[in-house]
Write a structure and sequence with these properties.
Blueprint (H helix, E strand, L loop, with lengths): L6 H14 L1 H18 L4 H13 L4 E8 L2 E6 L6 H7 L29 E4 L2 E4 L2 H7 L1 H6 L11 E3 L9 E6 L6 H5 L2 H7 L3 E6 L2 E7 L4 E4 L2 E11 L13 E9 L7 E4 L3 E6 L4 E4 L14 H19 L19 H16 L3 E2 L5 E2 L6 E2 L4 H7 L17 H6 L4 E2 L1 H8 L6 H17 L1 H7 L3 E3 L5 E3 L5 E2 L17 H5 L3 E2 L2 H5 L2 H8 L1 H6 L5 H14 L13 E3 L5 E3 L24 H6 L2 H7 L7 E4 L12 H7 L7 E4 L8 H10 L1 H8 L4 H9 L10 E2 L11 E2 L7 H7 L10 H11 L8 H9 L10 E3 L5 E3 L4 E2 L21 H7 L2 E2 H4 L9 E4 L4 H10 L7 E5 L2 E3 L2 E3 L1 E4 L2 E5 L2 H11 L6 H9 L3 H5 L1
Parallel strand pairs: 1-7, 17-18, 21-22, 27-28, 31-32, 34-38
Antiparallel strand pairs: 1-2, 2-6, 3-4, 3-6, 4-5, 7-8, 8-9, 9-10, 10-11, 11-14, 12-13, 15-16, 19-20, 23-24, 25-26, 29-30, 33-34, 35-36, 37-38
Helix pairs in contact: 1-2, 9-10, 11-14, 14-15, 20-22, 32-34, 33-34
Length: 923
């Protein structure tokens, strides 16, 4: 038998080494056992396919797997077996691979998992390995290990034929059960990982690898996009069991379904788990087991090269699908996965592959994406936001990938902020609003952000915030009216006011302009444009005087050309001309008066007739009304509404003024309002024949005669006089009015009937008064210092009449007028002892009580024929709570009324005691 590969020399060398050093035998046996049981276990088809791919050369080869007579046979095309290949097969530490991954390396040990007698048949010759023949060569050494020997160290020549169409076939007599179906499951991944193979046949099944012009690789029914690159390691980095500088990197991205969890292929599957969206197939330094890469600079260099190539793979995917290739955040599955994911993300961030709205490409490190997608919006604002990605990338499906790339998301608020720097025409702004409108419909946060949108105005300005603008049919100078070409319903939803005249008048900017108009006019600025705008709106709105008090600040010119507030000017033909003081108001310019409707000027506050101040929720006397604080403080309850005629203190002709007030229902209601300011002020401060109206009484009010004079004949109706405060009855309204009445009572020149005086003192309100002079019982007016209030009526007999106040006395009245009580100044007791008599023993008294249905008092009364107290004759007296009375109807009647608590009936008691009959009572 020929020995084309020199196997005898190989055997001789190995046997010599074993016999010379049994330790070497054990080392070889252990190493092979490690490979068989550990590293290369379950990698049979992978290694057979790898060897077939290595043999294929420039043209992709074919691998056929069959089961024949209990043997698993793997036939391949390509280069035949060589002496170097045989040497590699018979060595555990060497490889014949010269570039890439060569044929028949250490991985051939995978066959030992299924066979103890593998053969390799080739067109150049054949060899076999055999555990049985090896044991026969070294029986002593084999027995030391229980017959376990290294199979792949001793090689023998064999002569067999290779199947037609193939150059080499590996034949493995099986020592275990093996199913071709189990091997078939690995074929698609192997064809993808090994570009040196074009076709794999297993039994009756076959798979082919097709490469399209666009680089898409089809294996079976699966399509892959493959990006491949090659390179060479620097000499200082070459290391590992295979000592090869060349490397290849291929990224494979599945086009039909997601990859899921995968492993690194080097180029056949390892145990290095990966979580990237694409499969990495690379020639990396690996451990002898080929399950793990060999850590170190060489491996890291290839992995970095793989990461650098990844963006090229991404760039071959349609733009909108590219983010699917971005590694998403997650716990790395291995150290290699962690390193590779980090490098890939770094490479992706620095490469231009994301689509801009303009159609160009940009690096993620310079890109940004709208938080809410809108193609129209992106097209409109891309100039304001450089680096803005295509709108489709705003969709949630891309969010995680863009976050992993650290692409910032641009919120609507940031878009709005960027737009503040843009100078666009009104039509462009309309398109921006149209693009933003759908976003505002679904997200309240977006609506809030849009409230800061810039808005172009009709006058060329751009302002911030739709809520500060107006939408009107015509542009009006000075107002924030939106330019007609920019108007969009979104602005209304964001607070812009669709404005008629009333809404335009309510615009804050207009109010500001009106408020400072006088200052501007006095500074020399032209105010006529503002005057025209405001009066035009006031006329259209149909405002009435007093409805918008702020309008009174509008600067208008008077007849001399000077500027004044509108509410400080008088119409040239006003009915108040001659009624008010001559210098009360400047007269409005006749030119302005003739140019605008009278009603509009009056609504501004220009004085035509008397005008009102109306406040439905007053907080204090702050309405710039004359003597308002005095009115406010005089009210029993704090006013809840103010309706007042203004400028009353400027009236010169009050009869004429009252006629005007009465002729206008609006002002008349203010005059007659209960407890209102206007009536209060007129009664005290208006002038009728030189005196305030409350100084007078109506002609028919005779019960006030002496205290008040009859109002002069001013040709005013009685109801007008009454409303103005002219008195029709003795009604004292407040402290101020009480002081006035007390002053009249203390006037010695006035002749006032006792009845009027009594009613006047009795009608005083609660307060604290100290009149200098008062009227006394004698009818005189005297100084109040020596006057007392008669609180105990029996003292009337001993107190001089010119010292007793002409009033029904009480302690409260004394306090009110700051006068002493009679009981504090006078006292006394009867001069003589009288007869003590029980009330029931007095027949006339008893009958009087019966007629009045009054119970007889308990106790007694001391009756005197004539009653004297301190020398003064009196009709009755109280001493130590005991009544004393002269034996007269007057004395007994008053004492009885007092002790019975019926003092008001004293005169009736006197009459009935004089004549205790029904006729007296009824008559």
């Amino acid at each position: 038998m020929t020995d084309p590969f020199g196997t005898e020399a190989l055997r001789t060398s190995v046997l010599a080494a074993w016999r010379g050093s049994p330790t070497r035998f054990r080392e070889d046996a252990n190493a092979e056992e490690d490979l068989r049981l550990g590293g290369y276990r379950d990698r049979l088809l992978v290694e057979l396919a790898q060897n077939a791919a290595d043999a294929a050369g420039a043209e992709p080869g074919v691998l056929r797997i069959t089961l024949v007579d209990g043997e698993l046979r793997a036939a391949n095309t390509g280069a035949p077996l060589t002496s170097a290949g045989v040497a590699a097969l018979a060595s555990l530490r060497a490889s014949s691979k010269e570039s890439g991954v060569g044929q028949f390396g250490v991985g051939f040990a995978a066959v030992l998992a299924v066979s103890d007698a593998p053969r390799v048949i080739s067109t150049s010759g054949g060899v076999e390995f055999s555990a049985e023949r090896t044991r026969a060569e070294v029986p002593e050494l084999a027995s030391e290990r229980g017959g376990d020997v290294p199979v792949l160290r001793l090689v023998w020549p064999v002569t067999e034929e290779v199947p037609a169409g193939f150059t080499t076939e590996v034949r493995l007599p099986l020592k275990v059960d093996l199913s071709l179906d189990d091997l078939a499951a690995e074929v698609p991944d192997l064809l993808l990982a090994l570009p040196g193979l074009q076709r794999v046949e297993i039994g009756a099944q076959s798979w082919e690898r097709f490469v399209a012009a666009d680089g898409v690789v089809t294996v079976g029914s699966s399509r892959w996009l493959v990006e491949r690159t090659v390179g060479e390691l620097p000499s200082e980095l070459v290391q590992g069991v295979e000592h090869r500088p060349q490397w290849t990197v291929s990224w494979a991205y599945p086009l039909d379904e997601p990859l899921g969890e995968d492993v690194l292929h080097a180029p056949t599957p390892t145990d290095e788990r990966l979580s990237l969206p694409a499969r990495l197939i690379a020639t990396l330094p690996v451990e002898p087991s080929r399950r793990r890469i060999l850590p170190g600079p060489a491996a890291w260099s290839v992995l970095d090269a793989a990461a650098a190539a990844y963006p090229a793979l991404v760039a071959r995917v349609p733009a909108i699908e590219r983010t699917a290739l971005v590694p998403l955040p997650g716990f790395p599955l291995s150290e290699v996965d962690d390193r590779l994911r980090t490098a890939v993300l770094r490479s992706l961030r620095a490469s231009a592959w994301l689509p801009l709205a303009s159609g160009e490409w940009i690096e993620p490190s310079r890109a940004r994406v709208l938080d809410i997608g809108s193609e129209e919006l992106v097209d409109l604002v891309e100039d304001a936001l450089p680096g803005l990605l295509d709108a489709e990338l705003s969709a949630p499906v891309h969010a995680a990938a863009l976050a992993a790339l650290e692409v910032p998301r641009v919120t609507v608020a940031e878009v709005v902020a960027a737009l503040t720097e843009v100078s666009g025409d009104p039509g462009w702004w309309h398109d921006v609003y149209a693009a933003l409108a759908p976003l505002a419909d679904v997200d309240p946060d977006v609506r809030e952000a849009l409230r800061a949108l810039p808005v172009p105005l009709a006058d060329g300005r751009v302002v911030t915030g739709p809520h500060t603008t107006l939408i009107a049919a015509e542009p009006l100078p000075g107002l924030r009216v939106v330019h007609a070409d920019a108007v969009h319903p979104l602005l209304v939803r964001l607070g812009a006011v669709e404005a008629g005249a009333a809404e335009l008048l309510a615009d804050p900017s207009l109010r500001e302009n009106v408020a400072r108009s006088l200052e501007d006019a006095e500074a020399g600025l032209d105010g006529l444009e503002l005057v025209e705008t405001v009066l035009h709106l006031v006329d259209r709105a149909g405002l009435r005087a007093g409805e918008e008090p702020w309008l009174g600040a509008l600067a208008l010119q008077d007849s001399e050309g000077e500027w004044h507030r509108a509410d400080e000017l008088l119409l040239p033909d006003s009915a108040l001309v001659g009624v008010l003081e001559a210098d009360a108001f400047p007269v409005l310019s006749k030119e302005i008066a003739d140019s605008y409707p009278r009603a509009a000027l009056v609504a501004l506050g220009v004085v035509d007739g008397f005008s009102l101040v109306v406040d439905d929720e007053p907080s204090g006397p702050d309405h710039d009304l004359a003597d308002e604080s005095a009115w406010w403080s005089s009210a029993v309850d704090e006013p809840v509404r103010v309706v007042a005629v203004r400028d009353l203190d400027l009236v010169a002709d009050w009869p004429a003024a009252l006629r005007l007030l009465a002729a206008d229902p609006v002002t008349w209601r203010a005059v007659t309002e209960p407890d209102g300011y206007t009536g209060w002020w007129i009664a005290r401060y208006a002038s009728l024949a030189g005196l305030p109206p409350r100084s007078y009484r109506l002609p028919g009010a005779s019960l006030l005669d002496g205290l008040f004079d009859v109002v002069p004949d001013l040709s005013l109706p009685e109801h007008v006089l009454r409303a103005a405060g002219v008195r029709s009855s003795l009604e004292i309204l407040d402290d101020d009015d009480a002081e006035f009445v007390l002053e009249r009572l203390g006037d010695p020149d006035r002749v006032v009937a006792d009845a009027v005086v009594l009613r006047a003192y009795a009608g005083l309100p609660e307060g604290d008064f100290a009149p200098a002079r008062v009227r006394v019982l004698s009818g005189a007016v005297v100084a109040a210092d020596d006057v007392v209030v008669m609180d105990q009526p029996w003292l009337l007999g001993v107190v001089p009449a010119d010292r007793v106040l002409l009033a029904d006395g009480s302690e409260e009245l004394a306090d009110l007028l700051d006068l002493a009580l009679a009981s504090e100044e006078f006292s006394g007791s009867p001069d003589h002892v009288g007869e003590v008599v029980g009330w029931a023993d007095l027949g006339a008294v008893r009958m009087a009580c019966e007629l009045l249905s009054v119970a007889l008092p308990d106790g007694v009364v001391v009756v005197h024929e004539a009653l004297f107290v301190d020398g003064a004759r009196v009709e009755w007296w109280m001493a130590d709570s005991v009544p004393h009375a002269a034996d007269t109807p007057e004395g007994l009647g008053r004492a009885l009324a007092w002790v019975s608590g019926r003092w008001a009936d004293r005169h009736t008691f006197v009459a009935l005691i004089s004549d205790p009959s029904a006729a007296t009572l009824l008559g």
